């Protein structure tokens, strides 16, 4: 019997859930998730309803904020109180940098070449307090995870580890089970950027115990831009200070009393970190539709289905004799292909000519399919690489 909820390696119904134009093979979820039909419909409905904004009552609006929060929480650890709605990954990292203790002479460790949103807030904080920003740089043949562990072992001044689960350039996956256990044993706070993994890999929050973990909503969570989700550890939910002081983060009765001498109490949990302007009705509607779809498909099932797609791409490239082009670190739902520099422009041109949409990041062609792409596309994509390799 067909299981309606299962995510198969190739499934026409799942492919049909997306509204991509014909004639292209979209392999760039790592830049922006492909648009779901339900998200497009939700956006249109919200736009139509927006012609009469007075019909949207405060209670309905707040209820939609809480529905999005609960659905996002299900992608972390299911705790609705743990999640704040913020506009970007950078904003979430800035909240971590604003709150975690760091003193002169201490250090923050990031990976070399990390996405700027993960680095810039720490640069600033380190500059202000006189701390150092260290980069874990891989030695030849060393994995990124081993480079992080080596740095952690070699410098006892490290207080914060700020890491992306999945690398934005080539999709390599950090071994967070090992790294988190190591950091915890040394009393080092962990800050996670899950922007390239939440929705595509399970987030083992209970195992990793980060202080803060953030993800954008527009990549593997298939939602709109301007909506990111920040998971906050219970202790920071109780004492953390947000970047802005937005009224939405405060007890509504107290805040509208307007008593400047008596700060209004925070809303419970991570809501104190909710940012202003994010909870726009159209964005909420799109985020809710996207997160509902992810919940129906289930991240535990999406992960192997995406893995089947990148594995098919990798084995098709291996069959063409291009194993040496594949990024060496552990890979999951993003496949990094690193051709010789002299071939890169020709490959980019050939992929574009064949209607294959990819992104190139620091010399690496990033292949990032979602469920709209069947494993059977792998042969066609690898033929494009092979054509250039032989040309
Ligand atoms: C690892 C990673 N973090 C964060 C982001 C986006 O950050 P922000 O929301 O600050 O623009 C990206 C976007 O590509 C990314 O790859």
Describe this structure in words.
The radius of gyration is 22 Å and the shape is globular. The N and C termini lie far apart (47 Å). The strands form three sheets. Strands 2-8-7-6-5-3-4 form a seven-stranded mixed beta sheet, with helices on both faces. A three-stranded antiparallel beta sheet has the order 9-12-11, with helices on one face. The chain has helices at residues 12-16, 37-49, 58-76, 89-99, 116-129, 144-154, 176-185, 205-208, 234-239, 252-255, 281-297, 299-319, 341-353, 377-390; strands at residues 25-26, 83-86, 107-111, 132-136, 158-164, 189-193, 212-216, 228-232, 335-337, 356-357, 359-361, 364-367. By secondary structure, it is of the alpha/beta class. Helix 2 packs antiparallel against helix 11 (281-297). Helices cover 41% and strands 13% of the residues. Strand 11 (359-361) and strand 12 (364-367) form a beta hairpin. The chain contains 14 helices and twelve strands. It folds into two domains: 12-35 and 298-390, Aspartate Aminotransferase, domain 1; 53-296, Type I PLP-dependent aspartate aminotransferase-like (Major domain) (Aspartate Aminotransferase, domain 2, 3-Layer(aba) Sandwich). Residues 88-90, 115, 117, 164, 168, 193, 195-196, 216, 228 line the site of pyridoxal-5'-phosphate. The site of pyridoxal-5'-phosphate has 12 residues, from helix 4.
């Amino acid at each position: 019997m067909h299981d309606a909820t299962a995510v198969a390696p190739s499934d026409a119904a799942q492919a049909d859930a997306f509204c991509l134009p014909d004639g292209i093979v979209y392999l760039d979820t790592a830049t922006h998730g492909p648009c779901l039909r339900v998200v497009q419909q939700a956006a249109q409905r919200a736009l139509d309803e927006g012609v009469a904004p007075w019909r949207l009552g405060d209670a309905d609006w707040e209820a939609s904020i809480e529905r999005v929060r609960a659905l996002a929480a299900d992608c972390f650890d299911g705790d609705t109180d743990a999640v704040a709605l913020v506009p970007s990954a950078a904003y979430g990292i800035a909240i971590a940098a604003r709150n975690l203790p760091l003193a002169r002479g201490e250090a923050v460790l990031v990976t070399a070449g990390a996405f700027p949103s993960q680095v810039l807030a720490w640069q600033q904080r380190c500059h202000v307090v006189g701390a150092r920003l260290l980069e874990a740089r891989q030695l030849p043949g060393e994995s990124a995870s081993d480079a992080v562990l080596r740095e952690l072992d070699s410098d006892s001044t490290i207080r914060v580890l700020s890491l992306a689960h999945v690398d934005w350039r080539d999709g390599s996956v950090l071994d967070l089970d090992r790294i988190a256990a190591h950091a915890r044993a040394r009393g080092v706070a962990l800050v996670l950027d899950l922007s390239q993994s939440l929705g595509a890999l399970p987030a083992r929050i209970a195992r990793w115990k980060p202080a803060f973990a953030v993800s954008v909503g527009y990549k593997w969570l298939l939602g709109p831009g301007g909506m990111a989700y920040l998971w906050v550890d219970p202790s920071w939910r109780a004492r953390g200070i947000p970047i802005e002081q937005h009224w939405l983060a405060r007890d509504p009765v107290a805040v509208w009393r307007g008593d400047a001498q008596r700060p209004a109490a925070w809303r419970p949990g991570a809501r104190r970190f909710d940012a202003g302007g994010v909870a726009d009705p159209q964005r909420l509607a799109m985020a809710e539709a996207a997160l509902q779809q992810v919940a129906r498909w289930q991240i535990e099932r999406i992960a192997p289905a995406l893995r089947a797609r990148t594995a098919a791409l990798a084995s098709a490239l291996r069959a063409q004799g291009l194993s040496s082009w594949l990024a060496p670190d552990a890979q999951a739902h993003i496949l990094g292909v690193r051709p010789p520099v002299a071939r890169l422009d020709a490959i980019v041109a050939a992929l574009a000519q064949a209607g294959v949409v990819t992104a190139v990041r620091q010399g690496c062609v990033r292949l990032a399919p979602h469920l709209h792409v069947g494993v059977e596309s792998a042969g066609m994509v690898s033929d494009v690489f092979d054509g250039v390799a032989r040309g």
